[in-house]
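Could you help me review a protein record that somebody else here produced? What it holds is a sequence and that sequence's fold in token form. I have pasted the whole thing underneath without changing anything:
=====
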Amino acid sequence: MNQPWVYIVLIGLIIIVYAKIMPRTNGSKELQGPTIGEIEETMEHFAAELEEQNEALIRQLAETTREYDAQSAKLASKIDMLEKQSVHTGQEIARLSLANEELQKKLERITEWQQSVLQNAAAFPQPSGEAAAAVEEPQASQGMNIKKRYSELFSMYDQGKSSDYIAKKMGMNKGEVSLIIQLAKQEEQLNVQK
């Protein structure tokens, strides 16, 4: 490397490389300037859109939360109402069960009484002629007394109305209505047998 032409060639190469690098550096700065500005503008636009979407999402979430709270409150009130109705219905069922048991006992006593009356009546000799007619006539009118006394009940029963419906209309218990109907049927059977 003692020769001067090598130095000249090396200096020439360095100048050429430097000349090639310099325009690229200046050009790349010019290209980077608008590109960075565009990137910043795009990023700002993207951030603004994200912020708008976040606000919309927050509003929607708040609205959903309000709707959920309202629905929860409605459901809680319905549950409370149903629980109260359940308790009331349970009490009503217990009351009706007791009333039904009482009516069943009354019906059993009346049936026993009727059977004892029939047995006692069978023990007595049957009257003949006019006396028999006089005895049968009051019994027939007694059978009609229940139907006359509860004529409205029997008119609804003859129309095919249910015991529940008749009980509601008459202001009676269902067991009471059933008892009256059964007594009337038993009286009719007794009248038919005689």
Q: What stands out?
A: Residues 139-143 have pLDDT under 50 and may be disordered. The two ends are 158 Å apart (CA to CA).
